[in-house]
C-alpha cells in the first residue's frame, strides 16, 4: 500500500531480476452516460479514459503470473504498480517512485485503451509516443481607460491578442519542427464593457512537446517570447509556467520486447504501428528512471455507429479487450525476464 493509502505495489515471484507492470487507477469528473452493467455508481465520476480496464488487466496478469510463480515457472520477480492520480497534478507516478516502486526494476511496461483500434489489435511504437503537457498562464496589467482614447491606455485586449497570435507563431520559428512543439490557448479573458479598456487580463495555454531536450528548453523560451511581444504595448506581463508531465519516449529494446510478446500472445498480424499522440501521460516519469514502453490496447467495439474517444462521458470499450490485455502483459513480463535486454 502506498503511504497515502491510494495505491498498491505488489511483487510476485523471487529473484534479483525485476520487471514492473503499471496500471493507473483514477477516474474523471464526468457523468457516466452509457447504459451498461458496469456504469459508474458515483455521480459525475466515470472511467472515461479506460483506467478501469487497465487495472483489471493488471490484476488478471498478476493472478496468472502468481500461478506460474507457485509452479516455479516465473524466472524472476514481476512488480505490479497500481498507481493513483494519473489524471491529476501532481500526478501519482512520482509518489510511486518515491515509495520504492522502481527499486531494482530493470524495465517497465504499460498499456492504454485506444478506442480507435478495433478490439484484438495492439498499437506499438518505438521512440516518441505521447507529448509532454505543460500549462502557461499570462497575466497582463496596465492603465485602462476609454476605448475612444486608446492612446492614453495600455490596451490589454490588443496586447492579449498579440500574445495569443504571435507567441505560438514565433515559437514555431524558434524550435526545430521535428521536436513536435504545440502551444494552444484555451482561455482568454479581459474586461466586461465594450467601451472600457480593462486594467487586467489573462490568457491560458497548454504546451505539448514530443522531444525531451526541447521540453527542457521551452519554458525559458516561451517566457521570453511573451515578454518580447508585450514589450511594445505598454502593458506589464507576468508569466506562470507550470510543468506537467514529460513526454513518453519508448525505449527501443523495450518496445521490441513488448511487440514480440504481443505477437506471441495474439498473433503477429494483430500488432500494428501506433500513432503518436499529443496527449500527456505520466508513465513518462518512470521512463526517466528505467527503460520501458507503453502500447495501445485496441478496445473499439465492432459494428458500433458511435466513434468513441477517451475523456468522453459516453466512452465505452469492448470487454474482450481485457482478456487480450492480460495475455499481452503476461507474455511481456515473461519475455522481459528472460531477455536480459535491460
How do the strands of the widest beta sheet line up side by side? Answer: 1-3-2-4-15-5-14
Order of helices and strands: EEHEHEEEEEHEEEHEEHEHEH
End-to-end CA span: 27 Å
- What name does CATH use for the topology of the largest domain? Aminopeptidase
Would you count the extended β strands for me? 15
Strand content: 25-35%
Q: What class do helices, strands and sheet pairing give?
A: alpha/beta
Into how many domains do the coordinates divide?
Answer: 2
Largest sheet: 7 strands, mixed
Please give the radius of gyration in angstroms: 23 Å
| CATH architecture field of the largest domain | 3-Layer(aba) Sandwich
Instruction: Give the proportion of residues in helices.
Output: 25-40%
CATH evolutionary superfamily of the largest domain: Zn peptidases
Describe the protein.
The chain has 342 residues and is an alpha/beta fold. The chain has two domains: 217 residues, Aminopeptidase (3-Layer(aba) Sandwich); 113 residues, Alpha-Beta Plaits, CATH 3.30.70.360. Helices cover 30% and strands 29% of the residues. The strands form four sheets. Strands 1-3-2-4-15-5-14 form a seven-stranded mixed beta sheet, covered by helices on one side. Strands 9-11-7-12 form a four-stranded antiparallel beta sheet, covered by helices on one side. Strand 2, helix 1 and strand 3 form a beta-alpha-beta unit. Helix 1 crosses helix 7, helix 3 runs antiparallel to helix 4 and helix 5 packs across helix 7. The model has no long low-confidence stretch (mean pLDDT 96).
